[in-house]
Amino acid sequence: MTTARVPLPLRRLGHAALGRIAPGLAGRLATDAFTSSRLLGTRPDDVPPLGAHRFAVPDAPDLRGGYLWGDEGPTALLVHGWGADSSSMHGLVAPLRALGYRVAAFDAPGHGVSDGTRTTMPQFARATRDVLDALGDVRMIVAHSLGAIAAVGAAAGCPAPPVDGLVLIAPTRTLTGVLHRWARSQLRLRPRIVALVDQELHRRTGVPISHWDVVGLGADLDCPVLVLHSPQDDVVPYNEAEAITTGLRHARLEAMPGHGHYAILTAAATRERITAFAATRSASGPATTVHVGPAFRQELPWSCRLP
Q: How far is the C-alpha of 54 from the C-alpha of 93, rounded, in Å?
């Protein structure tokens, strides 16, 4: 969640002043800042990464498709975090390909090559589910940071999740927690304005932000979950990973000391742990996979778990 490239002290002063004289407007502008998704205000080149080819994601107008490495085997899907793009996950492609997975990645709405400069968690989660639909035989999802909420929400969106293993790297548990940490560290918003942002997000999306909770969304998830997190993470507190591990039925937490929130993605230890976890899943034989097509969506709409 980012704001425009105006010096932070000036942004804080502006929001503080506006909060006193026009709190409603301050809440709406703070919501715009919270949903901004372009960290640097730039976009990557719209060309496939080395060794990848494109795949289409039908009925997802806010996505530009995705990238796929390999043509055969069960699929592992990589889900990036907020303000990043699919390139942040590229270091995990080779280890998963070596295990026989074909590997997929995509740029969420308002990220990477996808259109827009803002997005919401419902958009992110729906896009992840659309990608799962387009790919079909997805056995593994590896998600980073806030992408963990989108991934779990998509995987557990209906009674038959199409995956049999999840890896959550430096995951955040709740969108509410993200909002409160962002409000304190970025704009130093008063509690009244934070409450207005909460309300405005609900109004815009039709979903309360309290819905976006990895533990709540994944309560019925029946697959192994590997959680990797660094106690030194200065973006997402380590206790978020502890809460997720305690709350999900089949989750295991492995501490990754000495790695920051972003450096953990490129750490050799991360690749080793993911490889070991994925190898046990790929060696366990074919999983029962249910493809959620349009007819099933009409019968069991997103309200079954994912708005």
A: 15
